[in-house]
Amino acid sequence: MPRDPTPPKAPVSTPADHKTSSVPDAKPSTSADIAAFVARARAMSPHASGANGRLVFALDATMSRQQTWDMACALQADMFREAAGVGRLDIRLVYYRGQSECRASGWISDSAKLAKLMSAIDCRGGHTQIGKVLSDARREAVAAGIKAVVFVGDAMEESVDDLCAKAGELGLLKVPVFMFQEGHDADAEQAFREIARLTGGAWCRFDPGAAAQLRELLRAAAAYAAGGREALRRLSSTTAGATQLLEQMK
């Protein structure tokens, strides 16, 4: 894997290339911070006319995820192809692994660049860092505007209340989080369902190693990011994954 750049001292957006930067820890929000955040949220239009759809694609890259990481590498181009039918799509890859390592790419609009980046990353043992993923998504929602977050993982080892607080802030921004769970971990399911509910997104399970199931879910999320609910509704007439998402979204 290429040498990672020096972690930034403050949250910044990286250039839209193949490099990644560290996702910093989020500080607790004060009452003033929350008030300002809500004001900005209400003033924003997450589906601005003519803008590229922006999707945060977040993956658990801890050791147990190697098979699914490889599968996601093979399927990521399907998201761009699906979005091409209704608009354009930019993807920001966020992943965590190892001891407190959580990194994010810049905005990528080419499937070959995303595939190259993902192929250079190997999975490493460590605990989940879903909170950092949600914090990064909130920053990007305010700074750049995003239309959806996709998370693919199989475990949750953090405070559910803390995750729900972060999810609630994304809900204020009307950014749905699609939580795609591999396997049947009960703690993960409880947390993932609640994150999806608080953001107006959806929770879906796929079987370990089930490429076809994950492909449908990723295509559906990409359709929503590029074309909104109407694009997802059209896709639901032919794809079960889109129907699963649409039935749960508020």
What do these coordinates show?
The N terminus is likely disordered. Strands 1-4-3-2-5-6-7 form a 7-stranded mixed beta sheet, sandwiched between helices. By secondary structure, it is of the alpha/beta class. 47% of the residues lie in helices and 18% in strands. The protein has a single domain, classed as von Willebrand factor, type A domain (Rossmann fold), CATH 3.40.50. The protein contains 8 helices and 7 strands, in the order E-H-E-H-E-E-H-H-E-H-E-H-E-H-H.
Query: Structural class of the helix and strand makeup?
Result: alpha/beta
* Average residue pLDDT: 87
Radius of gyration: 16 Å
- Domain count: 1
CATH class: Alpha Beta
What is the element string, with H for helices and E for strands?
EHEHEEHHEHEHEHH
CATH structural fold name: Rossmann fold
Q: Could you give a short description of this structure?
A:
It is built from eight helices and seven strands; from the N terminus they run E-H-E-H-E-E-H-H-E-H-E-H-E-H-H. It has 250 residues and is an alpha/beta fold. A seven-stranded mixed beta sheet has the order 1-4-3-2-5-6-7, with helices on both faces.
Comma- or semicolon-separated keywords:
globular; Rossmann fold; single chain; 7 strands; disordered N terminus; alpha/beta
Write the layout of secondary structure elements.
Elements: E1 20-22, H1 31-43, E2 53-60, H2 66-84, E3 89-97, E4 101-108, H3 111-119, H4 130-143, E5 148-153, H5 160-172, E6 177-182, H6 186-199, E7 202-206, H7 211-236, H8 240-248
Parallel strand pairs: 2-3, 2-5, 5-6, 6-7
Antiparallel strand pairs: 1-4, 3-4
